[in-house]
Design brief:
Blueprint lengths: L1 H14 L9 H19 L8 H15 L13 H12 L3 H27 L1 H13 L1 H6 L6 H20 L10 H8 L1 H15 L3 H16 L1 H5 L2 H26 L4 H8 L7 H9 L2 H27 L7 H21 L8 H19 L3 H26 L1 H20 L18 E3 L3 H8 L2 E3 L1 H5 L9 E6 L8 H8 L4 E6 L8 E6 L11
Helix pairs in contact: 2-5, 2-6, 3-4, 3-21, 4-5, 5-6, 5-8, 6-18, 6-19, 8-10, 8-11, 8-18, 10-13, 11-17, 15-17, 16-17, 16-18, 17-18, 18-19, 20-21
Amino acid sequence: MSQILKSQSALRTSRAGGLPRTLPTWAFVVGVLVLTAAVWAALQPSVPYLGHDEAVYAAKARSWLTGAPSAQWGPHRAPGLPALGFVALAVHESVASVRVVGLLLALLAFALFCWAATGLLGPARGIVAALLVLSGPGFLRRIPEFLTDIGTAGLLAGAAYCLLRAQEGGAVPARRAGPHRAGGRDRWVPAAAGFALGAFYLRYGALAGILALALAAVVAWGPRAWLARWRGLLGAAALLAVGLAPHLVAAERVTGSRVGMVRASVGAGHPEGLGGLLTYVRMFPVKLAGPWGGVVMAAGLVAGMLAAWRLARRRPRPEDTRTVFVVLAAVALVVSLGLAAHGEPRFVFLSVFLLTLAGVAVLAEWAGARARLLLGALAAGAVATMPVTGLLVARGLHDVTSQRKSLVAAAAELAVQSGGVVGHSTGFAVPTRRCVVVTGYQPEVGWYSGCATASLEQVRSGELPPNAPVSYLVFARGRDQLPPARVRRLAADRSVRVVELPAVGSLGAGRLLTVGGTPSRTPARG
């Protein structure tokens, strides 16, 4: 009899889309996280140097730690990532330290992806969804970097899951009803606000995702359903008021407006009108999620349209409201960011995850009795194509790395001239003398040289520090730079020391032209 009961229990688990009892869900989650760490480690040699945005955050963290200059930091950037970088650099001053922060954020994100996906779809479907997201070229491209995008997407995925739980309760409908269960649901609303706060302080651009989730939640369940959660709404409002108070104070002090930093973040997105949205349309779905994930995302879109149609005709299925919420939030985020910023895959990682959720659910439903076979094929395909996609991503990074190699070599020479010692890709310089370098690659050169940086616009407006030697970095194939002849005219009667740089990397041969002390507030002509 006990064997029969065990067989029936296993059968029920199988029909629910669960994983075999011999392999608990946590083991599969650990497997996803181990695979994430393996991807991070495998791609590190392809991106050994910090890129533009990475260097901005890392240089700000170092500035807080040592007082060294930062580069191109503005009020549009949230303080969360440099705060984490500050802790990492306090432990060890190196590129590897801040890159480990990126790894930890990726692990957090995929832990939250697994938590949300398995909670909504069941263990088997949830793990498959997480694997599909991980295998996408967009995620593989950004996993090895010290950036905010993946961590922000994970936190917003946590917020989306909490909103669903607030309206639906558990993934499997509970037998218990009444005030106790309603109160339990109310607690999920402040939890969603907590995830949203974390995402906001990590990246101000997360506000677009927060608004997309809020809009989709109101449309899917209606205002009355949320007013019924009034206790939770009050708790969320209190949490947001307390959590946002430091930001509002800082924004008022820095920009003169409580919404100044958010407004600056919107302006920094370089909007292209419909151009950003068209970019996402051209990317969809393969360039965002790969061949397997692309098919699943497309299925998720179809599922959202069918669910909306059934709801409009008042013939809904139990899962239709959830599907509309997930798909509408994903689409609203893509549309809003496509209109407000230039299109990049990393900006819409949350949409990739949400559409993948919807797609896995509907494909398993359509497969019926063959759902387990389909899920196994999707998981195997995601894992099997991951090395190929990673190889293609690594090859695509060759030109980027070659350019950064030129910048690191030039920064090493700057450090030597300023009495410092550069740590190549494993550290940074600490000059013993004050140095200023004019370059079109401010964050990268500033990070690796330890010097203050200035742009061509600052030269033209006379905003360079007075009485300090200024070095002009000029490459054969560089951007935003003054020709050597123009530098000599700017120097007037001051001495100019020229150091020829070898042709390292794709920027070609370079020159470092160092001018003696500059007069105060003397605008440059031309």
